[in-house]
């Protein structure tokens, strides 16, 4: 059986470096992109099982991408990650249908639980 | 004339008395004279003796005396009306402190009549917590240690309510007839106090809000900056553990994630370094301000503390002081620290005046210099080097950060803070701030 594909979109290089290794340890296949635009252009949306998405990014930010995908009728589960603890953002993204939002630094357990919630299994 | 009448009736209006009348001189001048006629008791026809005395000089003296009296009365009246209609309270007390006289304003302020006051001692109407200080100041006055003093204190009115007053008290040197007495000019400052308290409260609330606002913005930015590398550390270390727990362990992968953990740790530390640099330089906007004004505000705030410590403060502020650029509140904090420091240094001084001199002057380099000179215990050579170190204190209740913080503040203003021994007793702490045109 093919591994489920988790996509990481974050402008921070160190996140694109460290997070995939952890996701691979969890047993997923991982694709990384440094911007929302890059992800949309890649044509990877169809095989994405879950999107791990940063909020603050230059250009199209995480919230814009969420709106764009929703507008397209794309139902990829989204887990937001952000360095800024802001409860109003949490409320907003959950209302828009996000699976969860994790505030950095987050534990591997929290990430695993969110992925579980997103895909129903791990 | 009268002689015949006298001889006939034995009555007399003149004999045996001194009469004053006006005499006409041969040259036509009129002069005041005194005349006295007496009968000489001897045999033969009735004889009288009389004398006439020129009393011009005596009359002149009397007139002068009368005029002096009138003038004195006028003067007395004038002073009495000053006393009676003065807008502030005036009270006279004997050297024991018993009231001798009070004016209507003073009576109205306290609710006692003039007669009731005469039964009272000034301490009877002074609130208990102000009595010791007040008595000590009066004692200084009577000992000649001071010529006058000012005190802010509270009186208790006849109806039990309190009134805050600012009193200027002096000894009036008496004369042959009037013994020395105490003179107090008493101003009701209750309303001013209330206004000041409200102002103080508003000011400190504002400062607090400004600080909290700045702090919360700063905290959010620090949190965001630090959370990024912390997140990397947590993720990498978690991955590392998982790689080591695998069967067989992925040692090479674990090594790589451990390296990344170290890198992210260093990144977090860099963030802190950058934040400190930022914080040290630009925590608050600098403004152009007048150091004299800033100092006067601090002095005004310290009045009651100075008074409590029985310290006389003299300020000598230069008129040609250049304006300086900086954080006014921080600089005022430094001035306040130096004044408090001076007070503390004099707290054990009993054998001499506790004097604090706050002086500003233009520095040789064109900057503005402020010095606080005390007559306290001076600087112990053994601790001189540690004076500005944090957590070094000679006070039982101090944190020991006052001078250290003050010096940091001065350094962030490109200024300097230093201490020097006085030629006499005590020490002088000075700082210099560059003038705004030099920076």
Overview of the molecule:
The complex is a heterodimer of chains A (about 120) and B (about 450). Chain A is an alpha/beta fold and about 120 residues long. Chain A has a single domain (about 5-115), classed as Response regulator (Rossmann fold). Helices cover about 45% and strands about 20% of the residues of chain A. Chain A has helices at about 15-25, 35-40, 60-70, 85-95, 110-120, and strands at about 5-10, 30-35, 50-55, 80, 100-105. In chain A, helix 3 (about 60-70) links the parallel strand 3 and strand 4. Chain B has about 450 residues and is an alpha+beta fold. Chain B is about 45% helix and about 25% strand. Chain B has a five-stranded antiparallel β-sheet with strand order 5-4-8-7-6, with helices on both faces. The radius of gyration of chain B is 41 Å and the shape is rod-shaped. The termini of chain B are far apart. Residues about 395-400 of chain B have low confidence and may be disordered. At the A-B interface, helix 1 of A face helix 7 and helix 8 of B.
In brief, what are we looking at here?
The complex is a heterodimer of chains A (122) and B (439). Chain A is α/β, with parallel strands linked by helices and 122 residues long.
């Amino acid at each position: 059986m093919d591994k489920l594909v988790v996509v990481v979109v974050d402008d921070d290089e160190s996140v694109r470096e460290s997070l995939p290794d952890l996701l691979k340890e969890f047993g997923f296949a991982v694709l990384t992109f440094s911007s929302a635009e890059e992800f949309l252009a890649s044509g990877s949306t169809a095989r994405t099982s879950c999107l791990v998405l940063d909020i603050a990014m230059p250009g199209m930010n995480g919230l814009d991408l969420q709106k764009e995908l929703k507008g397209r009728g794309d139902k990829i589960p989204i887990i937001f990650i952000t360095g800024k603890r802001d409860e109003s953002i949490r409320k907003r993204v959950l209302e828009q249908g996000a699976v969860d939002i994790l505030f950095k630094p987050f534990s591997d357990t929290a990430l695993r639980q969110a992925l579980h919630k997103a895909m129903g299994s791990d | 004339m009268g002689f015949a009448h006298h001889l006939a009736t034995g009555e007399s209006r003149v004999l045996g008395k001194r009469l004053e009348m006006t005499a006409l001189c041969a040259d036509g001048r009129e002069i005041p004279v005194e005349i006295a006629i007496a009968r000489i008791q001897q045999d033969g026809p009735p004889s009288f003796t009389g004398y006439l005395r020129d009393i011009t000089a005596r009359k002149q003296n009397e007139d002068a005396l009368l005029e002096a009296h009138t003038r004195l009365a006028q003067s007395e009246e004038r002073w009495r009306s000053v006393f009676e209609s003065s807008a502030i309270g005036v009270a006279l007390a004997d050297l024991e402190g018993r009231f001798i006289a009070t004016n209507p304003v003073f009576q109205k302020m306290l609710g006692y009549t003039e007669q009731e006051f005469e039964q009272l001692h000034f301490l009877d109407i002074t609130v208990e917590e102000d009595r010791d200080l007040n008595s000590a100041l009066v004692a200084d006055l009577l000992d000649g240690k001071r010529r006058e003093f000012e005190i802010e204190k509270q009186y208790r009115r006849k109806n039990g309510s309190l009134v805050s007053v600012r009193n200027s008290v002096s000894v009036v040197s008496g004369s042959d007839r009037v013994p020395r007495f105490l003179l107090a000019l008493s101003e009701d400052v209750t309303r001013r106090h209330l206004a000041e308290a409200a102002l103080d409260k508003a000011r400190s609330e504002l400062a607090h809000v400004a600080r909290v606002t700045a702090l919360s913005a700063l905290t959010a930015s620090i949190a965001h900056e630090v959370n990024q590398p912390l997140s990397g550390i947590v993720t990498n270390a978690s991955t590392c553990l998982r790689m080591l727990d695998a069967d067989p362990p992925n040692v090479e992968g674990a090594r790589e994630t451990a390296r990344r953990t170290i890198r992210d740790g260093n990144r977090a530390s860099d963030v802190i370094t950058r934040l400190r640099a930022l914080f040290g330089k630009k925590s608050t906007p600098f403004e152009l301000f007048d150091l004299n004004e800033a100092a006067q505000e601090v002095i005004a705030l310290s009045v009651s503390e100075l008074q409590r410590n029985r310290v006389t403060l003299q300020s000598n502020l230069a008129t040609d002081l250049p304006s300086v650029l900086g954080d006014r509140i921080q600089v005022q904090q430094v001035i306040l620290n130096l004044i408090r420091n001076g007070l503390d240094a004099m707290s054990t001084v009993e054998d001499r005046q506790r004097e604090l001199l706050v002086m500003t002057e233009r520095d040789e380099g064109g900057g503005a210099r402020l010095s606080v000179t005390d007559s306290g215990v001076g600087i112990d050579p053994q601790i001189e080097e540690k004076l500005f170190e944090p957590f070094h204190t000679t006070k039982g209740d101090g944190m020991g950060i006052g001078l250290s913080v003050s010096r940091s503040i001065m350094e962030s203003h490109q200024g300097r803070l230093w201490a020097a021994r006085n030629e006499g007793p005590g020490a002088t702490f000075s700082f210099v701030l560059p003038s705004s045109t030099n920076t």
